[in-house]
Design brief:
This protein is α+β, with helices and mostly antiparallel strands. The protein is 22% helix and 48% strand. A 9-stranded antiparallel beta sheet has the order 5-4-3-2-6-7-8-1-9.
């Protein structure tokens, strides 16, 4: 089944969050600020975390604005780096009931990610500054829309991050739950 819309995002550790937030507050449209608590699950029929790269994520999210959702992403990898994802998400009335359904189906809860996010819109790009408990600050730039030249969009997103004065480190291609799972020993650290 072909997908009309895709999500492309790039994320980096951020060492100057106050400077970047001040720039975005002055030059971009503030969208929202929220706290998100994500609980990730492993499937009983296949170990999502049994491969060198994690391609599948299933989560329940609760947000401070009252939104509650369940989300599944399947990431497409290019030479070991997350490039883009097929994504399905729907709002739910009760995270507790959804959690119980997953537990009854033998899905295993493995990690919670607690993050505070500030999101801004600049043109067609959404910028988010995340403070993640146990990990620090990150900046994410995201494109969500019709399928297009994925590699060109990714390069453009990186250039946009640099153009707003973000002091960034290496790209985070694996995501917050991955880093937390790795720190807890659930995923073995990759060598090299």
């Amino acid at each position: 089944m072909a997908h009309e819309n895709i999500e492309i995002e790039v994320k980096f550790a951020l060492t100057n969050p106050d400077t970047v937030i001040a720039w975005l507050e002055k030059n971009a449209k503030f969208e929202y600020e929220s706290r998100q608590i994500d609980e990730y699950f492993n499937a009983p029929h296949r170990n999502f975390f049994g491969r060198p790269t994690v391609d599948d994520w299933l989560r329940i999210r609760e947000e401070s604005n009252g939104k509650k959702s369940v989300n599944y992403k399947h990431w497409h990898q290019t030479v070991g780096n997350s490039s883009w994802a097929d994504e399905w998400e729907t709002e739910i009335a009760s995270p507790a009931d959804m959690r119980n359904i997953l537990l009854q189906l033998q899905f295993e809860p493995v990690i919670k990610v607690d993050k505070r996010r500030k999101t801004f819109k600049l043109g067609a790009t959404e910028f988010s500054i995340d403070q993640v408990e146990g990990l620090g600050f990150f900046i994410e730039a995201e494109y969500c829309g019709p399928a297009a030249d994925k590699d060109a969009i990714k390069v453009e997103l990186i250039e946009k991050i640099k153009s707003i004065g973000a002091a960034i480190g290496e790209p985070d291609t694996r995501g917050y739950p991955y880093w937390l799972l790795e720190r807890k020993g659930y995923i073995k650290q990759q060598e090299g």
